[in-house]
């Protein structure tokens, strides 16, 4: 992707220059590739854009209070590999959607809304194909905005207030409220400008739709934690929202199974986890990012599984649709 839409705290930028390497330079990328063999680094953003990009918190903030935990029976069989897109073929197109958060720290809302959409389709056996609006969650949720939000609060919003339908930028055919920013590659010069959270507007983009009639709801939200519990939750109920501690080298991810080579912490990122597998004896999680399809493996990445790499197995949020309300 021509310009990386969301970057994080300034310490990562400063530390990279201390050792004389620009974090998007060929030299820095070569250094990453020399430190490991499970993934390939490359440039996802032009070097001259980097100094002008506003510094953002990526949006995955940890919950302040106690969150309900769900524990599955670990005696159940778990397959070596699993991909939600293949497990629920009636919902493949919905599960496979990749967002672009652009210059808003909305990953927490995009990942949550994507998981909700997947689960509506999955738990209705493909009969309800409703895209949940990340825009409505971003602007009208309990907390959060372009400065970031708590994934748990996203699912709490779904349970308490409901979230209307709506999908990608300018896609009024996907429901009530579409995302407010175009993809970064569609407006590369604007990707250097920070965007403030829009006001909450309880109105659909399409005047023929009634806002309150477009609301979807979830049951009580919960968390799962640890490798097997996460596998069982995904296998039974569909994709979940996970959080990643982002380190500087992650910005250069191109392909393969990520494991960090840098200690320069940048921030927390919310993501949709939809499966797992094994490649050349290395276990991994399959995860959808929200930096558009030009980043990583067509918008996805894989990360080493079973050792809580970059905190990926700690904060995992989920909820089930409450079909009695919509």
UniProtKB/TrEMBL annotation:
KW S-adenosyl-L-methionine (keyword) present: no
PROSITE patterns tied to this protein: THIOL_PROTEASE_ASN (PS00640)
Keyword terms, alphabetized: Disulfide bond, Hydrolase, Protease, Signal, Thiol protease, Zymogen
UniProt-recorded Gene Ontology molecular function terms: cysteine-type endopeptidase activity
Annotated signal peptide: 1-16
Domain Peptidase C1A papain C-terminal: start-end pairs: 78-320
Gene Ontology biological process terms from the UniProt entry: proteolysis
Claim: Transcription is one of the keywords in the record: no
Family matches, as Gene3D superfamilies: Cysteine proteinases
Similarity comment: Belongs to the peptidase C1 family.
UniProt name for this protein: Peptidase C1A papain C-terminal domain-containing protein
């Amino acid at each position: 992707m021509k310009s990386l839409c969301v970057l994080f705290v300034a310490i990562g930028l400063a530390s990279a220059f201390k050792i004389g390497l620009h974090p998007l330079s060929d030299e820095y990328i070569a250094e990453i590739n020399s430190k490991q063999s499970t993934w390939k680094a490359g440039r996802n953003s032009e070097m001259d854009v980097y100094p002008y990009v506003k510094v953002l918190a990526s949006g995955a903030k940890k919950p302040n209070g106690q969150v309900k935990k769900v524990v599955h029976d670990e005696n159940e069989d778990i397959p070596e590999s699993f991909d939600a897109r293949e497990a629920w073929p009636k919902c493949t197109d919905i599960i496979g959607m990749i967002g672009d958060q652009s210059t808003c720290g909305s990953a927490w809302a995009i990942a949550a809304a994507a998981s909700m959409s997947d689960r509506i389709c999955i738990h209705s056996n493909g009969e309800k194909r409703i895209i949940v609006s990340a825009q409505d969650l971003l602007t009208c949720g309990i907390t959060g905005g372009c400065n970031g939000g708590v994934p748990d609060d996203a699912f709490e919003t779904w349970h308490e207030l409901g979230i209307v339908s709506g999908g990608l930028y300018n896609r009024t055919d996907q429901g009530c409220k579409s995302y407010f920013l175009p993809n970064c590659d569609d407006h590369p010069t604007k990707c250097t400008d920070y965007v403030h959270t829009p006001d909450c507007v309880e109105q659909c983009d399409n005047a023929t739709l009634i806002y309150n009639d477009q609301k979807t709801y979830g049951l009580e939200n919960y968390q799962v934690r640890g490798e097997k519990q996460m596998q069982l939750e995904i296998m039974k109920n569909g994709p979940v929202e996970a959080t990643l501690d982002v380190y500087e080298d992650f910005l250069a991810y191109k392909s393969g199974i990520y494991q960090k080579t840098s200690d320069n912490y940048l921030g927390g990122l919310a993501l949709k986890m939809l499966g797992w597998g094994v490649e050349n004896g290395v276990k991994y999680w399959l995860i959808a990012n929200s930096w558009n399809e030009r980043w990583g493996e067509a918008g996805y990445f894989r990360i080493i599984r079973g050792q809580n790499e970059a905190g990926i197995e700690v904060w995992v949020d989920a909820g089930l649709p409450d079909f009695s309300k919509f």
